[in-house]
């Protein structure tokens, strides 16, 4: 046993000398190191057709940042919110999975289950005739907001001072949404 330890020590010393005293013109290679808990990457996993660029835009966590558990919770909520505004009302984002490299770098993965794209099933408008939505349209928040604004503008042109609100009634079983535009 003692001779084995001596042999290991001799090999280690020889390797150290060989690495430190390289012939002229040779290069030394150093292992890449990451600061402890520095984020090396943020991955979004989960199906085709997701608006990945838009989802990345809502993230507060980026490569090179220090790992922050509270920010990861906020990122998860932001991802679900962005998916909902794009019509994925049943989308679920799992809590971030953090994997550490041997050098301490953190690799973040958000697993996304987008679910179906919700479609508009019915559109009801109380108090006006202009509605720019039709059944079968994607239930995208920006389109619904534009329809609300168009209705509000139409009422204002006719001299009716009213606030237009939107009530959404999603049906997860059919991936449909009933929209009600109400003027008060």
Q: N- to C-terminal separation?
A: 89 Å
- What is the fold-level CATH name, i.e. the topology of the largest domain? Ubiquitin-like (UB roll)
* Main sheet attributes: strand count, strand direction, barrel closure: 4 strands, mixed
Count of structural domains: 2
Q: What is the number of beta strands?
A: 7
Which CATH first-tier class of the largest domain would you pick?
A: Alpha Beta
Give helix and strand order, one letter per element, not per position.
HEHHEEEEHEE
Question: How is the secondary structure organized here?
Answer:
Layout: H1 2-20, E1 39-45, H2 52-57, H3 69-85, E2 92-93, E3 97-100, E4 106-113, E5 119-126, H4 141-157, E6 164-171, E7 176-183
Parallel strand pairs: 1-4, 5-7
Antiparallel strand pairs: 2-4, 3-4, 6-7
Explained architecture:
The chain has two domains: about 40-115, membrane protein fhac (Ubiquitin-like (UB roll)); about 120-184, no CATH class. Helix content is about 30%, strand content about 25%. The chain is built from four helices and seven strands, in the order αβααββββαββ. It has helices at about 1-20, 50-55, 70-85, 140-155; strands at about 40-45, 90-95, 95-100, 105-115, 120-125, 165-170, 175-184. Strands 1, 2, 3 and 4 form a four-stranded mixed β-sheet that branches. Strands 5-7-6 form a three-stranded mixed β-sheet, with helices on one face. Residues about 1-20 have low confidence and may be disordered.
